[in-house]
Amino acid sequence: MAVLVGQEAPKFTASAVINGEEIVDNFSLDQYKGKKYVVLFFYPKDFTFVCPTELHAFQAKLAEFESRDTAVVAVSTDTEQSHWGWLQVPKDKGGIEGITYPLVADTNKTISTNYDVLAGEWDYNEDGEMIAHGEMIAYRGLFLIDKEGVVRHQVVNDLPLGRNVEEALRMVDSLQYFEEKGEVCPANWKKGEDGLNASHEGIADYLATH
């Protein structure tokens, strides 16, 4: 699994559904560079079980991400038509109606490959025929990208393990606190708490009071 932290986020241009209804052909993260942070998350499949819980959980916190100048963008290996169809299904029937942030279609699986979250590998058999080992879908990867387009945080869950959206929001707060204050964020830090002066004295003072 590649570690992308500290590197420029891989670029892509792909079809996506935006605003819960409109299909566009040339969606790119370039629109956010210099303007917004991005929480880019991958999910395995449309019309499944854990995935809608995550998608709705991000939607429920969308205003909080937006208040932090942070865009939320989702990606799966489904087509844009599949995304659009799922958006027409009500939440109480297992659908994602009401999701307004972009859903990117990684149909050719290049985005998942470049972010190294594709759950499967291509190979060749003894007859020279291409075969796949595992499902060619995305793990539950999440990447926090700063305004300069650099990955500052990543986490990847296996397919059955849903994410904690509050933790994603906490990581946005942590990064922004560090950028603003120049102080680092200790374990379990939350917005509104003091940070830590990155010195021996600062660490000693912090540990003495916690």
From TrEMBL:
Keywords: Cytoplasm, Disulfide bond, Oxidoreductase, Peroxidase, Redox-active center. Residues 3-177 form the Thioredoxin domain. One of its GO terms (cellular component) is cytosol. The active site is at C51 (cysteine sulfenic acid (-soh) intermediate). GO terms for biological process: cell redox homeostasis; cellular response to stress; hydrogen peroxide catabolic process; response to oxidative stress. Its main location: cytoplasm. GO terms for molecular function: thioredoxin peroxidase activity. This is Thioredoxin peroxidase. It comes from Luteibaculum oceani.
